[in-house]
Amino acid sequence: MKFSNTLVYWQLQNNRELPWRKSKNPYFIWLSEIMLQQTRVAQGISYYLKFTASFPTVFDLAKADESTVLKMWQGLGYYSRARNLHFTAKQIANELNGQFPSTYKEIIKLKGIGDYTASAIASICFDEPTAVVDGNVYRVLSRYFGIKTAINSSAGIKEFKILAQTLLDESKPGTHNQALMDFGALHCKPQNPLCETCPFADSCVALEKKLTKELPVKDKKVKVRNRYFNFLVIKTDDNKTILSERKGKGIWQGLYQFPLIESEKNINKEEIISSEKFVSLFRNETTISLFNTKEIVHKLSHQHLYTQFWIVETVTSSKAKINWIDIKKYPVPVLIANFIEEFES
Description:
This protein is α+β, with helices and mostly antiparallel strands and 345 residues long. It folds into two domains: 2-208, Orthogonal Bundle (Endonuclease III, domain 1); 225-344, Alpha-Beta Complex (Nucleoside Triphosphate Pyrophosphohydrolase). Helices cover 43% and strands 13% of the residues. It contains 15 helices and nine strands. The strands form three sheets. Strands 1, 5, 6, 7 and 8 form a five-stranded mixed beta sheet that branches. A two-stranded antiparallel ribbon has the order 2-9. It has a two-stranded antiparallel sheet with strand order 3-4. The chain is elongated, with a radius of gyration of 24 Å.
């Protein structure tokens, strides 16, 4: 209880004014928690405000088409979050009459919601005493208690959840959880934590044993896969182009892209022109030029995309049906959105 009291007292002096903190509406808390996965708070706030303005209720989100949701999500990355958000909104609106489940056991059954998000919603909105464990919590607990178990191992996930639960103040679980997450984000930071002014300085194992930089421990990352993308940016004489929706379960599902030639390595103009895809697309005479003289390296969690944008000008194309002026209406990966901005500037 002393740990929790110290934590909550710290938060009273350092509380963050965040828009979703003004409500215990589970719809708003759910939105904020999904957005803040893999996203910094500073970036997430603008997206949260945009979403709640466009979709003030779960019914509004459920009624939107997926393409609109993905377009509004553009720039946040990890688009499966947006697809799952939309799927679950429809489920809550259509099957549960707009009523969000009120217990951890029911909340975690919803698509796209794991232990952390279910615990956050259950504790903040419904005062259920279930501890949250996110990156901030892992960092605070591993340092304070000097725990060297890898946080991304099954043993570590279990150990930290049990520990977080024992520390939880069950009389105000939502306040405790938010204070712990805030403390990790603002005070016990990944780099340069504020140890000199830390309220736990007299009992922190990492500080005493000079382990702050070593903790938390994380098992080695999955090997990064290199991929080589060549986008064909078509412009016809009447300003038409080709965009198509990415299907399947790979990256960018549901987003739009220019025709893509993926290669084993960096390829040149002659190799592009002689490729099967290029030949199938263009029957008329074309002019082709490389837009970026240096490959753009777009880094995803387990993939690095070495990208070239080829500008292909042609008189006409039966497959080019999208007006160039409408191109920004389509949800596209941030890699392509950045290209479009630069190309049009």
